Each structure stands twice: as structure tokens, then as C-alpha cells.
Amino acid sequence: MNFSRPDNPFIKLFNDSLRDNCLNIHGFLSLEDVQEKLDNWCKEYNHKRTYSSLNGMTPAEFIRSIHKDEDL
Known about the structure:
With 72 residues, the protein is mainly α. The protein contains three helices and no strands. The chain is globular. The N and C termini lie far apart (37 Å).
């Protein structure tokens, strides 16, 4: 799967965010360092950052709210 030129605007937005907020600001010393920094970025992206498109929720909160609604 080629993500370098995605047709999906959501994938493009994610790729741009990853590049701008992680890859372009960190230097990497090893593959382990890359993995650690990407893991930290993913945790922040999914569990700490809120998004107006998700009504001010984090992606993790949004997923929980969907599952909560399904249980009703």
C-alpha cells in the first residue's frame, strides 16, 4: 500500500500531522529510538490531543463514546 500520495484526505491529514509533529522535529539515534518516539507521538495523538471534528474529544474518548452508545 502506497501512502506517499494518498487519495484519502484523512490519510493525507494524518501523514502531514505525523511528519510535522514528530518526524521533522526529532533526530533518531537508532531503530529503537524511532519506535519509542513514534509510540509516544501515537499516545499523544490518540489519548491527549482533542479534535474539533470529534466535538472536542480525543480519538480514544470518541471510540469509547461510540461503544457506550452501542451498549444502550
